[in-house]
Each structure stands twice: as structure tokens, then as C-alpha cells.
Amino acid sequence: MRPVTPLTLPGMCWPLQASTGHLGVTTTLITGHFRAGAGQDAIVQCALVPAGKFRNGALRHWCRTHQHYWGTQADLADAQATQQRRCRQHASPMGYVLYPALFDPMQCHAATLRLDQDGMLQLRARADLGGALLVRDAPALAIDCRALSGVFHPDIVQLNITPPAAQAFAAALQAGVPLDCSDCARCGHPHLDLGSFAQAPHRRHTCGHCGHDASHSASAIVSTPLWRLRAFALRHPQRFAQCL
Ligand SMILES: [Zn+2]
Ligand SMILES: [Zn+2]
Questions:
Q1: Distance between CA atoms of residues 82 and 161, nearest Å
Q2: Which ligand is nearest to the CA of 87?
Q3: Per-residue model confidence as pLDDT tens digits over 116-164
Q4: Which of these, 34, 90, 107, 239, is most buried using a 10 Å CB contact count?
Q5: For residue 160, how far is the Cα from the chain centroid?
Q6: What would the pLDDT profile of 218-242 be if each residue is shown by its tens digit?
Q7: pLDDT at 3 over 70
Q8: Ligand 1 centre from 169 Cα, in Å?
């Protein structure tokens, strides 16, 4: 295959299979190989951050991109051979959207955000300035968090509403599973449960931002930052008529 320089662009990506996720991002950019404006075949660069130690005492890292730990014997051997630190999922295709719609709830009113049966997010809102109707139908979109003071950790610039997160939230709501949003004891970022973890309430949560795996919620819950976004919407009925 011809080596191609990866591109760094505004975008969001998500693993196609994962039990955790990373919605509250500190950068709007992603770096990787993209064939189109959106799809399920992006190859995205790892974003490794120190994440304590494995049980055997070896240093451990967490890949925010692929939601996977790094630092096993096989990872170290790969790093030695390739002179690159990359997690075991580095070549796994990812879902992605480039230049996602970015919605700032503090500049609009009467917003409705719904997930339709085909998995499409439907956003409607009126701009405070001029009253123009904003209409967005997209598989994924981002909420601008910079003006939402106190809702999420202050270094979170936007909340990415990815298809797996929106679908897991809708399924958990429908199933009546106890939902809440628990923050990481180490970095303060919100936990996101996906897949089977979004169906079975539990107390111990792994952080998609820093890889800390020993935060405990007060009770057994399914954790998602979309729950907190929804709570924010309920507190601001002028801004939000409906939020997921
Ligand atoms: Zn990775
Ligand atoms: Zn964390």
C-alpha cells in the first residue's frame, strides 16, 4: 500500500465495537486517513496517555482513539520493531464524521434533538439572533460545551454525540435501565457505557479519556454524558424543548 500522510481535520470518530467511549473531547481535531466526509472505514492515529500500571506492575497507557490499553509484551515488541507506539486496534476501521455540525445551545432556543428510527439525529432550533431556523439531520453531531459552564469538566470543548452513544442511550431509556452520568475519579471526565455495558447497570467504570478503571458510582448505573446533557436541557426549557 502507498504510504499517505495522515490528515488532521475537525472531526469525530468512534470504535465500531467498544464498551466504553470518549464523547467529551478536549480537541475538535482528529488525525488519520479518511476516504470521504463520513463513513465506517477511517484509520485514525492512536492517542496514548499514561494510565497507571498493569497488575504485573508494567507501565500502562490508554488509547483514547481506540479505547484500548497499550503496554503489553506484544505492544512493546511492536514498538521496538516499528519505532511507533500504537495500540493493538490501530488498524481497525472506525466510524467517523469530518466537519460535524456543531451546535451551541446557548445561542439558540426552542431546540429539539431527536434520534429517529433510522439512527439519524434530528436537530431543530431557533437562533437567538435573528430567529433563523436551524435544521440538521446527521448521524452524528457535536454540542459546543464552551458556554455550558459547570456541566462538564472545564477542559471539554465539545460533546460528540456519536451513533453508538445515541443508540445506546435510546435503548437504555427504552429498557428503563437506571441511567446517570458518573465522572472519572482521576480526570473528571464523564463515563460512557456502550454495548452490553449500556444494558447492565454496574458500579465500576472505565474512563474513555484517561483509562482509569477504578471509579465507582454511588449505585449501579449505566453512565452516559448524554444523561447530563438531557438534565441540562430539562433545567433550561427555554433553550431545549426536547433533548433525546
Ligand atoms: Zn489506538
Ligand atoms: Zn479519567
A1: 34
A2: 1
A3: 999 999 999 999 999 999 999 999 999 999 989 899 999 999 999 999 9
A4: 34
A5: 5
A6: 999 999 999 999 999 999 999 999 9
A7: no
A8: 25
Q: 105: closest CA among 242, 240, 244, 226?
A: 240
Q: Ligand 1 centroid to 65 CA: how many Å?
A: 5
CB 108 within 8 A of CB 125: yes
* Calculated CA dihedral for residues 62, 64, 65, 67, nearest 10 degrees: 60
- Ligand nearest the Cα atom of residue 63: 1
User: Which H helix or E strand runs over 25?
Assistant: strand 24-25
State the distance from the centre of ligand 1 to the C-alpha of 216, rounded, in angstroms: 25
- Distance, in Å, from the CA atom of 3 to the CA atom of 73, rounded to the nearest integer, reads 27
CA of 89 from ligand 1 middle (Å) equals 5
Ligand closest to 22 (CA) is: 2
Q: Quick check: 242 and 219 in contact, CB under 8 A?
A: no
Summarize pLDDT for 38-93 with one digit per residue, the tens.
999 999 999 999 999 999 999 999 999 999 999 999 999 999 999 999 999 999 99
Please state the ipTM of this predicted complex. Answer: 0.98
